[in-house]
Amino acid sequence: MPQRTTERSDFTSFTDFVALASASPDVVGLVLSGSQARQGIATARSDHDVYVITADDRPALPPALTEGRRSAALDVMALSLSAFRTHGLPGDTYAWDRYAFVHSQVLLDRLDGTITQLVEEKAVLEGLEAHHLVRSELDAYMNSLYRSVKSHRDARPAVAHLDAAESVPYLLTVVFALHQRVRPYNKYLLWELEHHPLGAPQWAADVLFPQLRRIVADGDLATQRALFATVERAARQAGHATVLDSWGSDIDLLRPSA
């Protein structure tokens, strides 16, 4: 059971929910996510994001647990075990939800570690998966960056700014996948960089985050090129030269020397 992280008058509704769900034979797992699962993020308005995993032969949430599933204190998502196995993974409707399981807390696991194992698998990118993700998102990042740089060249700063901003999600996916990590939601990006750094100084919070803010703010060309140079070095070292080189001489437009 997680410790109390905020002063809330309705906190007992969360503890009551966990106790009630834990007592139900239909429930095989409980996972806490969101701000309440990440130290230092929760505020007085943060609810408790709880995934309730039910047995496949009883996929519906028990009636006693349906009341108050979405309130100031609770945001409950119920999933059968089969649905939870693929939830947040590539190809799933909720693939965007994968980061929810990074730093999450397993509150209940009635399946001898199965729930814990599934959460751990969602929380990281395995080698081959990370490799393929870097390759696809690196190409997408370069595409948006190339469009932005060309628009700067052609004196169209407004549309250059839009493409620069659009490149950032691809860029972040690449950077985190290079470290076999799931890209954080924007809300948790700075916290992630500060509390779980990526290691190399070029990815430090006080280096990377200001660059991202500058790009999103106005699409600054020099900042975009400088950051691409950093990404290019890391991608080549990780074995992704073929993606970069497939751009031929066009890649020169993305580099600081262009």
Map the helices and strands.
Blueprint: H1 11-23, E1 27-33, E2 48-54, E3 74-80, H2 81-86, E4 105-109, H3 114-122, H4 127-153, H5 157-177, H6 186-195, H7 205-218, H8 221-237, H9 241-245
Parallel strand pairs: 2-3
Antiparallel strand pairs: 1-2, 1-4
Helix pairs in contact: 4-5, 4-8, 5-7, 7-8
Summarize the structure.
The protein has 258 residues and is of the alpha+beta class. 47% of the residues lie in helices and 10% in strands.
Verbal overview:
The protein is α+β, with helices and mostly antiparallel strands. The chain folds into two domains: 11-122, Beta Polymerase, domain 2 (2-Layer Sandwich); 127-254. The chain has nine helices and four strands; from the N terminus they run H-E-E-E-H-E-H-H-H-H-H-H-H. It has helices at 11-23, 81-86, 114-122, 127-153, 157-177, 186-195, 205-218, 221-237, 241-245; strands at 27-33, 48-54, 74-80, 105-109. The protein has a four-stranded mixed β-sheet, sandwiched between helices. Helix 4 (127-153) runs antiparallel to helix 5 (157-177) and helix 7 packs across helix 8. The radius of gyration is 21 Å and the shape is elongated. The N and C termini lie far apart (56 Å).
